[in-house]
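Journal club prep, notes for RB
We'll compare a predicted complex against what the paper describes. Inputs for the alpha-D-glucopyranose case:
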Amino acid sequence: MRCSALLAAAGLLLSACDSSGDGGSGQAGSTSFQGRGPITYAAGKDATGVTPKVIARWNELHPKEKVTYIQLPTDADSQRQQMIQNAETKSNAYTVLSLDVVWTSEFAAHQWIDRLPENQFPLQKMLKPVVQTARYRGGLYAAPASSDGGLLYYRTDLMDKAGITAPPTTWSEMTNDCAQVKKKVPAAKGMSCYAGQLQKYEGLTVNFAEAVNSAGGIVTDANGKPDVDTPAARKGLDFLAGAVKNGTIPKEALTYQEEDGRQAFQAGKVMFLRNWPYMYSLAQKSPVAGKFAVSPLPGLDGPGSSSLGGHNLALSSFAKNKATALDFMKFFSSEDSATTFLKDASLAPAYADLYNTPSLVGKYPYLPVLKQSILHAVPRPRVVAYGDVTSAIQQEAYAVLTGTKSSAQALKDLQSDLQKATAQ
Ligand code: GLC
């Protein structure tokens, strides 16, 4: 593995490492994973219900090595906090962790998770940027499980009635389409135009980063250096803030996480919604089934770009029964399990070929588009002090959205906060 200019100052800033890593020296061997018996899997609550199903399949096959699903809260920040609390007390309560892709550096650098033997996972079959999210300093610290890319959910029935034939590719097209639909379709009159995840939590970091990226700006550069105090970043943030101010985004959306937005969309309250792929399968079982589609996120002058999301499987350093854990991680991240996660719950797979499998594309026609969006998605800052980075972003973005700070001042303050966080 080759990392260029890897660590700034005290070694806390991970910069560009290539994905061709061979793990360097000290490759983790499976012999260091010992002990068999019951284990736990700690992950956020699963709205789709597919996680218990796949665990039940494992438990049937391994009655002496059963996995207990520990359901953590739905929001990413609370999950991270609980996992860190466990790690800091060296608790063995969590064996396998469903680690958000943005936490790999932090957990690996603190030695809260074990380095994994990469020859035991079919990484060459997976999308490269997804594998990259599981690496720290070239070593593999998690098994890529599901990826995530932002999509624009929109109401095809209403667009058709208004005579609009294609989904919007820019923010202004989206706003105009919404106005047209409201004008021409009486049932849509009271609907809100757009929502995303704007509550003050990790979802806001994602939505902020996407707005900045979709206006041509960046939060940090390829070496992890903050560069957010720019006119382009300001255009992105101003789109969100302006939309809240003029009502394109309803005030309630400032309290939305993923599930709140989904409920609003399914109840016919919102016309366009930014959300992750998991929502597709659930919305297909809701009152808007057959009345919506997804497209790439819109941007300032053309299609926007998504943040790279997703979850990987990491092994707690403090866990028991690590031989069982390694086998479970292989099972849970296998192509077979990924197919179930995709079929049942529309979770974005790590495996490249599933995006082009005819039967799956038949069920989820947007898969090829999603693959491109994941391949071109922008990773959030890859830093050990990720907690500081995300809370600075949340703080400043929320202040602008709620009208207590100008975007110019907030981006200036954010640049300085990010410089401090990444220089630690
Ligand atoms: C999704 C993404 C994850 C992201 C989170 C934010 O779960 O997979 O990467 O951090 O949403 O709410």
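Talking point for the session: The radius of gyration is 21 Å.
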